[in-house]
Amino acid sequence: MKNFILYNPVRVIFGNGESNNVADYVKGLGKKAMIISYEGHDFLNVLLDRVQTSLAANGIETVPFYRIQANPLLCHIREAVEICRAENVDFCIAVGGGSVMDSTKAIAAGVTYPHDLWKMFISRHDCEVAIPPMETLPTVMIPTLPATSSEMNCIAVATNDVTKEKAYIFCPTLYPKISIIDPALTCSLPTFQTVIGAVDAMSHVLEAYLNGDQNSPLQDRLHEGLLVTIMDELRKILKDPTSVEHRANMQWAATLAWNGYIQSGLDAPTPMHQMGHVLSARYNTPHGVTLAIFMDSYFRYCNGNKNRTRRIDRSPNERCRTISYRQNSFEILSYPLRVYSFFWFFITLRRFYKKIRGEFSPRT
Ligand SMILES: [Fe+2]
After folding, report:
1. Total structural domains within the chain
2. CA of 55 to the centre of ligand 1 (A)
3. Residue 115 belongs to what domain range?
4. For residue 273, how far is its CA from the centre of ligand 1 (angstroms)?
């Protein structure tokens, strides 16, 4: 195991129905909150109304910003930052999945950021050194999709709509103040979102497991436990989507998959994510789908490297060994995963073809 520093100050409130008590938990954070959610947020109307009503009843004014899209754009983050500044907002509340939570972190950090917001982001193509945000407004997360673990990490990913780069902020300042994880909110998730969320969480576990330090048996067992839990619970959820019990297990597993605990000491790169970000930035392909597209090929690539796959083979967890690429299993995910990734693979190819044709067609 390599040396590491672990710091995670997020106050997690986990339980069915806890999103009803948001006003109790945010006391002391301020008198005015921006509520951030998706554009076309109809499916969240009831929840958003409930949050707003509860805050109003406790004397907290709210400023809605419902413009975030999947694969969030820098232009919307800029817009929200300007509103926060004009309205003197004290804190930000995210109601949604990873895109909304990531945007909320960037917005909260952007309010007092003295430079251009894009300078916060690392992994930009211009290779300039990022200037991390030194402070942020407090943020509160109410996740509605188990996937990214954004509710308990200090990462925010966004796409620059001008340069078409997907880059991220990684800075301890960004840790949410409070995360209210209410699994009951996920019971109405459609199959598509449920599956690609699970693929994202699995990828977070697998990338560190396959690429990280090889002498970390405790971390291996933690990874295997999460992997098997995500696979088993997904199978159960697909059979019984309204089961709060299985949704709760899935949501906690997804939170732990990328909150820094299991990655400690592994120092692992994330190749599938980095390749996937390019597809998302260029063709707006959903994050989980980009991972599904790459996952099978990446496993085949790892097949040529015994160091990477040795972990799976020597795992004492029999269920974990069944994910071996050689047995070509992924049996739980196989049907929805392949259907969706196949579908999106062709959409992505079509967009790529259109772009090439547009770029090389003679100009009039
Ligand atoms: Fe991810």
Report:
1. 2
2. 31
3. 11-185
4. 6
